[in-house]
Design a protein that fits this description.
Length: 122
């Protein structure tokens, strides 16, 4: 069983930046894809980004492409999400997710963290 703990959320003004981190424990981190989903108030959870086990492949939702960057450090069992040029519509709870591959992860199948709140004020 894997445990995921997110950190780094908070309140930021529009145009600002935040960096989310996710620490994984409980199994071999380096062999699984990692990613992030988010859920805004009153909306369904949506895929944000994913990274392959090696870090060589990444995917982004169109809404965050060019503003968010996902990275991972398999030596530290962490995955990070650098969020720049934040907009009020980025306000949501952000969840770290892990799955055997990106295809399963992007469909929401896998293990989830508890989430961290990101609030972007206008």
């Amino acid at each position: 069983q894997v445990q995921l703990v997110e950190s780094g959320g908070g309140l930021v003004q529009a145009g600002g930046s935040l960096r989310l981190s996710c620490a994984a424990s409980g199994r071999t981190f380096g062999s699984y894809a990692m990613g992030w989903f988010r859920q805004a108030p009153g909306k369904e959870r949506e895929f944000v980004t994913a990274i392959s086990w090696s870090g060589s492949t990444t995917y982004y939702a169109d809404s965050v492409k060019g503003r968010f960057t996902i990275s991972r450090d398999n030596t530290k069992n962490t995955v990070n999400l650098q969020m720049n040029s934040l907009k009020p519509e980025d306000t949501a709870v952000y969840y770290c997710v892990t799955a055997p591959n990106i295809a399963r992860l992007s469909n929401g199948f896998g293990s989830w963290g508890q989430g961290t709140q990101v609030t972007v004020s206008s």
